């Protein structure tokens, strides 16, 4: 059964959001001194590079960009459902004393961001860690919030937000799709779904 999706951000809206976030980051830091960007794989990395490009354009300074690879690991034999684990990183700079802006495409439960922060602290002691996301969809399970948000998108848990970026997917757009209800179930009817 195909999922039904609708576009919630266009190429131009993504471009404008990246530019706005780049200005906010510099404004909050009161400049670019000590700033580094770290994208969370997969789509956070090209977003971090785009933010760095925008900052270079309006500030004339090229910020260092790193990558953090966080992968969801599922152990079906235990009660642990989905725990993000750090698989590998590319941090070609010293984190100590810097202000790290973590960049990701979608903020949802907060578990990926928590794992990313734990990983960063293993690599150094940043002065501060901030968070920039293209989409904040709500449903937080941890007390984590984004400092810079491209778009807030209220969603239900039955919906999926799909960010597509040229660098990864060949197109720039954000779609929201409703997951099909399992056969024999009606989503939203009391007592039929958990």
Properties at a glance:
4 helices; 194 residues; 3-stranded antiparallel β-sheet; 6-stranded mixed β-sheet; alpha/beta; Rossmann fold; 9 strands
Summarize the structure.
The protein is α/β, with parallel strands linked by helices and 194 residues long. The chain is built from four helices and nine strands; from the N terminus they run E-H-E-H-E-E-E-H-E-E-E-H-E. The strands form two sheets. The protein has a six-stranded mixed β-sheet with strand order 4-3-2-5-6-7, sandwiched between helices. Strands 1-9-8 form a three-stranded antiparallel β-sheet.
Round the mean pLDDT to the nearest integer and report it. Answer: 86
Give the C-alpha Rg.
18 Å
CATH topology type = Rossmann fold
Q: Give the tally of structural domains.
A: 1
Largest sheet: 6 strands, mixed
Structural shape: globular
Could you give the order of strands across the largest sheet?
A: 4-3-2-5-6-7
Helix content: 25-40%
The ordered string of helix (H) and strand (E) elements is EHEHEEEHEEEHE
**Beta-strand content bin:** 25-35%
CATH architecture: 3-Layer(aba) Sandwich
Ends distance: 21 Å
Continuous helix count: 4
List the uncertain runs. Answer: 73-81, 187-194
Question: How many individual β-strands?
Answer: 9
Find the structural class using helix and strand composition: alpha/beta
User: What is the top-level CATH class?
Assistant: Alpha Beta
Write the layout of secondary structure elements.
Layout: E1 4-9, H1 11-29, E2 35-40, H2 44-59, E3 65-73, E4 83-90, E5 99-107, H3 111-123, E6 128-136, E7 148-152, E8 159-164, H4 166-169, E9 173-178
Parallel strand pairs: 2-3, 2-5, 5-6, 6-7
Antiparallel strand pairs: 1-9, 3-4, 8-9
């Amino acid at each position: 059964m195909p999922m039904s999706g609708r576009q919630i951000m266009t190429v131009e809206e993504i471009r404008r959001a990246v530019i706005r976030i780049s200005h906010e980051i510099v404004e909050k830091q009161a400049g670019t001194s000590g700033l580094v960007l770290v994208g969370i794989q997969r789509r956070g990395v090209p977003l971090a590079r785009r933010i760095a490009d925008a900052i270079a354009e309006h500030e004339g300074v090229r910020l260092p960009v790193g990558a953090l690879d966080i992968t969801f690991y599922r152990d079906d034999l235990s009660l642990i459902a989905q725990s993000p684990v750090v698989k590998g990183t590319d941090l070609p700079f010293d984190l100590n004393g810097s202000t790290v802006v973590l960049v990701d495409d979608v903020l949802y439960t907060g578990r990926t961001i928590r794992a990313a922060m734990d990983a960063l602290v293993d690599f150094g002691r940043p002065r501060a860690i901030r968070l920039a996301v293209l989409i904040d969809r709500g449903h937080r399970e941890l007390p984590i919030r984004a400092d810079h948000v491209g778009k807030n998108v209220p969603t239900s848990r039955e919906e999926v937000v799909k960010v597509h970026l040229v660098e990864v997917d060949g197109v720039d757009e954000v779609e929201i799709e409703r997951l099909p209800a399992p056969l024999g179930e009606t989503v939203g009817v009391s007592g039929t779904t958990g």
